[in-house]
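Long-time lurker, finally posting.

We've been working with HEAT repeat-containing protein 6 (Myripristis murdjan) and I want a structural starting point before designing mutants. I don't trust myself to interpret raw outputs, so I'm hoping someone here can both generate the structure tokens and explain anything notable. Sequence follows.
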Amino acid sequence: MPPPASGQSCAPVFPPVPLSADAAPFTPLGTEGWQFNSQSDAERQFARCASKLRSLRGDSAQLREELNLLFDQLMSENYNKTMNPSINIRPEDVCVLLKHASCLVPLSQEHLVIKLCQLVHHLLNQLKVIMDEQTLDVLVTYTVQALSVCSTWTHSEILLALSTIVYGNGPQCHKHLNELLGKDGVLLLYSSPSQPDMELRRVTLTCMANICLRIPGQPPLDDQYRIVCFQVFLKTLQAPKPPNTDELFYCMVIQAALKGLQWCLSSGKWRFGGGEELGSVLATIKRLMFQGAPGVSVEWPAVLYPAPLPQYEGLSAPKPPEPPKEAATTSKASGVRQAFLSLGINIGGFHLKISSLKNNGRVRQGALHCLLAVVKGVEKRTLYGYWSSFIPDSPIGGPPPLTLLTIILKDPSPKVRACALQVLSAMLDGSRQFLGVAEDTASPRTSFTPFSFSLATAIRELHRALSLALLAETSAHTLTQVIKCLAYLVANVPYHRLRPGLLSPLWKQMRPYVRHRDVNVRVSVLTLFGALVTTQAPLPEVQLLLRQPEGGGGRAGSFTPQDSALSWRQRDGVSSPSPETGPPWLLQLCVALVTQPREDQSDSEGTGQGGALEPSPVRLEALQVLAHLVRGYFSLAQACLCEIGQMCARCLGETDPSIQLHGAKLLEELGTGIIQQYRAESSIPESSRIPMSQVVQFWSEVLSGPLNGALQNEQHPTLQTSACDTLSTILPQAFAQLPSQMMCITVLLGLTYSENYLVKTAAVRALGVYILFPCLREDVMFVADTANTILAALDDRSPNVRAKAAWSLGNLTDTLIVNIVGVDFQEELSDMLILKMLQAATRGSADKDRVKCNAVRALGNLLHFLRHSQLTRSVFQRPLEDAVRALVQTVQSEATMKVRWNACYALGNAFRNPALPLGKCSAPWSCDAFSALCSVVTSCKNFKVRIKSAAALSVPAHRGCYGDLERFRCVWRSLATALENSEDTNDFLEYRYCASLRHTLSQALLHLLSVSQSGDMPALGASLAGEEGTGIKEHLIKYLREEEAGDGAEGAKDGERDSVNLQCARCLTCFFDAATLLDRSSNKTPLQCRQDVLFDKN
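Top reply, 14 upvotes:
Generated this for you. Predicted structure of HEAT repeat-containing protein 6:
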């Protein structure tokens, strides 16, 4: 036997073994062993050929023969990393080999040029080599020169190599792009619809598509060339099929153009023209979505135009007619056929030849990928106008409209159906604002069809068609896409504006699929249930569904083979709850999925603790559904509080960090639900709340379980973060009765020193929650420890940590204000600690807006809290001035409105401190504070900022706080001007605050009147006497009338308010020349005085 040819893999040689009974039994070499030898041969072959190639010189007499042999040997090996993942050929070795080979092959040797191009394609494609810039430039230059020098018959192979070289490297080939894609460029020449060679045209389009491909992290192709490629691809797709062209080659050209169009559109936002161009692309894509579909003889439009979308509707939506219900069937197949017949669909219409079906299916799939790129790249508001071209707004009947639903229901290829579902999911994702207009609950009208009703009809048709697709689908992958699409639909539809009845059939139809054999289907079903319990929660229809027992409501609409089998969850001992008292079926299901053995375990294996649990994705999704259920329907889940807590403890005790994390998040949702029940504004009666003893027991069990271990798990900082968030959701009343208070506080204080910023942020935030607890806020030691921790966090490098630290500092200073009545507390708190907090809050006011908005809140509280003994100390003088100036600068700055609103509120809070020397000449910062507020109340565009500045100006309790007459007159004039201009705004959204602004301004002016002195009367009288004063008096009288109406309803029981109003009435009476009505010795009541003034009785 002759030796094997050079470059071919040699068969393994086994040593001779004598035939003997004592010989060892034959053991065949395993797969790994064979693979190892094969990989080793490929690597050795490459190294040998590369070494031989590097030794060749251009002047060798046998260069052509040697190159020919080496190229053949290199291409004879399989370097595919998909087949051999462990193959180890360095990219730099491939680059060196190809660069040297390009130097050795002259362009005159066209056969060698073709072999080199084949080698380039073979190595780069199989080894997935990322080339360096020099190699890229050398190879692109060589192939471009070859296209201009070599004969036309070589260009297909050259372009194939070029397409492999430029794959994802389009922007790096900028030096050659003009030669390729410029005017009279070779790629434009060969991609023209007039090019007769279809294979050359296909390779050219593939090369252009690879140039347009954008690799993540790299810049996109220059718009100049991207638009050129886009126009070529679109022109190719719009051109008719050339006569006498093979169907296969034509489909391959269309596929290449579709791939190029997809990559052009995927490079970023739409940049290819206006509505005409977009409509042209969508029309072309829609035509190709039905490529090869039999019986489709439609005159396709060249351009799709958007439907006009009304912005506002003045009339109610009509009630739609009831759609005809399909007759009940006894089997899945007959039910699906009956449904298809009711839609006017010919089931046998897609019976195509296998080859034609495959090629046209790829075209339809490519068109749908392009449509998906359009959906992702075009602004949603623009795309909404084209929805009617792809989503029907009425039940399909008669000649079926060609939409995405047609493909989802009729296309024979599961891949094409899956692509159509992905497109529909992308269109539905984020469409809540658009679909929110839909409504069909109002009484019917026949004169016209409002847009809201049309949209509601489209939603009902989507439900109907996707339900049919759910019944008909046989591919597990496509079935997963159907359910995911339903989840996107449910998450974005305003069911509270639609007639009930859409969710109940879907709920019942989905129940059997939780036992589907495919894991991905089970996960998607849970995702859909999560969307059902999340949308507009609590939704009455979903509440009724949750209360139904597992067997309740029948199996209407459920045509799955699993219906005839006994539920495996029932076999595992999960009983059906009663409709009134038992926990929801969905809650029981999710708990069982998390804690019980998986469903494919046979009865003979038993269901003990040793059984395998559900796959991790199923358990994680079940935990997320439980979190959604607890958040939206806590009243239905609270009966299982302890059981869910035990399940969470079990999850925290597992080794999978994801399961631990979702268990902690579920605990956080439970804590949040309990807190919401006990809020002061909660409308839940006390008898329906979880008893306090049960809440204490729940948290005692949680804190004595594995949560403490999760808090200290430094290997998983995300889990530590979630555990800190869980601690922050303990009910304050229950915390006071817990024996683990010290443990919680100690752990949180320790975690604020974590090196991970997420953990530190969560710990600082939790301390900011604890500082508001009634059982802790009077503990001076805890307040001091928390303050020192927050001060350290305010100097952290992470802006997230500083933002939460500023929020916690604001909460801590709120606690100081609550404790301001306790003299002992003020004296026990260190002056130096107060000073440090004042200085830290002042520094925070110069930080980012996220930090600044709470830093100024803390400054206002601290300035309110300072005692006279502290203000007189020299060490406080400079920080005090800096703090007030920081507030003044924030009020006058261009920061966000929330920051300025907080700064105005903080100044008003500071004015409540009677120890502050507001009106004294020794405090020049007080003049700056009043000036800033006066400026903002008249000039700020945001009315909420104006309201808070006006409220701050009305805070000082005494006339002396306003300073001299000039400052008092400035404040009055600013408030009066603001009242006169209270409706002047260019922002329509600000008008909703006009009434509140006028109310606050009137209250502030009346307050100034109440504290005014005799020396202020001439200036105020002059202000009210003129034409401007007439409007002011009208507003003030209107305000007093509103106050009077309020007093009549509530009874005049607030003596202090009546006293203030009496003073205001006296002042107004003086200005209205009715002073005789309100003699200081008058025996009239405040109510009578105000009535005299209001009605101008003389």
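Before you design anything, note these points.
The chain is about 60% helix and 0% strand.
The chain has a mean pLDDT of 82.
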